[in-house]
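S1.2 Input.
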Amino acid sequence: MGLDSVELILRTEEEFSIVISDDEAAEVRTVGDFYKLVLSKLEVTPGCLSSNAFYQTRRALVECLGISRRSIRPATELSPLLPEETRLKQWQKIRQQLGLSIPGLRIPDWKKQSLYMRSLFLAAVISLVLGGFALYRNWPAWLVAILATLLCIPLMMGICNVLIRFNPAFASELPADTAGELARVVLSLNYEHFTTAGSTLKTSDEDVWNKIVDIFCDELQVRRDEVVPNARIVGDLGVG
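S1.3 Output.
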C-alpha cells in the first residue's frame, strides 16, 4: 500500500480496535482487499482480544509519552521510550491513563542483591545489639544465640520491605520488553474486561464497509463514489 497509507492504517486500527501488520498491509491492493482484511480481524477470538489490548495500550502510551501512533508497533522496544530517570513517573501516568490492571515496575536483580545485603547487615547489627542487651540482663548464652538466629531472617525481610516501600525508585525494570508483550500482559490481567468489550466488535458487514468508506473519504479526501471494491488504493485513490 505504500508509506503514504500509514495514517489510513492507523485510523482503521483505531476505529475497529485491531492491528494490521506491515506484511498484511503490503498484500492489500484494492479497497475490497482492505475490506476483507478488516473483516477477517473482527471475529471475537483470542487473537482479536490481543489486538484490542494492544490498541488500548498503545493509546495510553501515546497520550502519556506525547509520541505519534505510528511510532508504536507490537515490536517497538519500550526502553527507549521510557528513560530510566523518568520511568517511574511515566509508568504511573500510563497506569492511570489505561485505567486497567497493569504490572508495576520490577526491581532489577543487581538491586535486589544490594538490598538483601544491606538488609542482612542491618538485621545482624540489630540482632547483635539485642543479644548483647539480653546477655547484659543475664539471659543464658545458648538462648540468646537461638533467639538471635531466629530473629535475623524476619528482621532482614522486614527491613528489605521497608526500604522498598519508602524508596520506590528501586523499581526501574520494565515488566515487558516491547509494546506487544506489554499488551499481552495487560490482556492476561484484564481478560474479563476485554472479553466483554470484544462482544461490541460484532457488527454487520455493511456497517464495516460504510466505516471503511468513511475512513477512505476522510483520510484521502476522495468522493464516496470513488471508493468501490475494485478501486486500487495505490493509483486510483491517490496513495503514492
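S1.4 Remarks. The mean pLDDT is 83.
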